[in-house]
Write a structure and sequence with these properties.
73% of the residues lie in helices and 6% in strands. It has 257 residues and is mainly α. The protein has one domain. Strands 1-4-3-2 form a 4-stranded antiparallel β-sheet. The longest helix is centred in the middle third of the chain and has 40 residues, at 122-161. The protein starts with a helix and ends with a helix. The chain crosses the membrane at residues 18-36, 42-63, 84-108, 128-153, 160-183, 195-218, 230-251. Keywords: Membrane, Transmembrane, Transmembrane helix.
């Protein structure tokens, strides 16, 4: 790890340490509220809160970029490449999401060890949870890059239309979501994504329900079977890479300060 990267990451960490604590505070509050208002087992509550793992990375990237707005000139004229500046932000968001998910997973494993709700060993359960964590973080990169793209458009457009740029960006975002939803119903989308099914089995015998969930491109059922379709990963991965390089170029060359 070179000196420039260490310096940038230390700066990013100092700027984002408040955000890093936020998901844990919110989770504790929600666990307390949900256990007061309903009788659901705490293991189900914690597993449901793992869904926050999807939004932490996108939220961290946007929060970090917005924190740079007040001194955007210094950010854009940094002697380091724009890609290094952005990679630091994405890596810090990934670390935040990963830490959050690891803490929840360790909590689930600990609770399961106390109440013995599963016939799985600790290693088997934690390995399965690591699989879930990995795919959640991978999937969350896609919305993080999309938000980065629209954030960059906002920085460009506000030079010309001021505050109206936020409305233009939101309108374009809604339009894009609607077009993608329509595209998902076409035969072309099915042909591009409906391939590469891989089934992964985990030792059966689990008596609880907290893994009977659907997380993104994974499908889990009560028998601890998971099916991964490689097609969507490749399709959305290509879109993610293209949008990232377009956004980085626009930020580096077109945003005026």
């Amino acid at each position: 790890m070179n000196q420039a990267f260490r310096g940038l990451y230390f700066k990013e960490w100092k700027m984002m340490k408040g955000f890093f604590i936020g998901p844990f505070v919110i989770t504790i509050i929600l666990i307390l509220l949900l256990n007061v208002t309903n009788d659901a087992p705490i293991i189900n509550t914690i597993s449901g809160l793992m869904a926050f793992g999807y939004i932490i990375l996108p939220a961290a990237v946007i929060f970090s970029l917005n924190s740079e707005v007040n001194h955007l000139e210094l950010f854009l004229h940094n002697p380091q490449s724009v890609h290094l500046l952005l990679i630091v932000k994405f890596l810090n968001g990934i670390l935040c999401a990963f830490t959050f998910l690891v803490v929840l997973s360790l909590s689930l494993v600990s609770i399961d060890m106390i109440w013995e709700s599963s016939s799985l060993t600790v290693l088997e359960m934690f390995s399965y949870l690591l699989l879930i964590m990995a795919q959640m973080i991978i999937v969350s990169i896609y919305p993080a890059v999309i938000l980065f793209f629209f954030w960059t458009l906002h920085q460009i457009w506000r030079t010309y239309i001021g505050g109206l740029s936020i409305f233009a960006v939101v309108a374009l975002l809604i339009f894009s979501i609607q077009m993608m939803s329509l595209f998902r119903t076409t035969a072309i989308y099915k042909a591009l994504t409906d391939w590469g099914a891989v089934s992964i089995s985990v030792n059966s015998g689990y008596s609880g329900e907290f893994l009977a969930l659907s997380f993104g491109m994974f499908q889990f059922n009560g028998d601890l079977q998971s099916i991964i379709h490689l097609g969507p990963y490749v399709f959305y991965g290509i879109i993610t890479v293209l949008l990232y390089f377009i956004s980085a170029y626009l930020l580096d060359r077109k945003v005026e300060v």
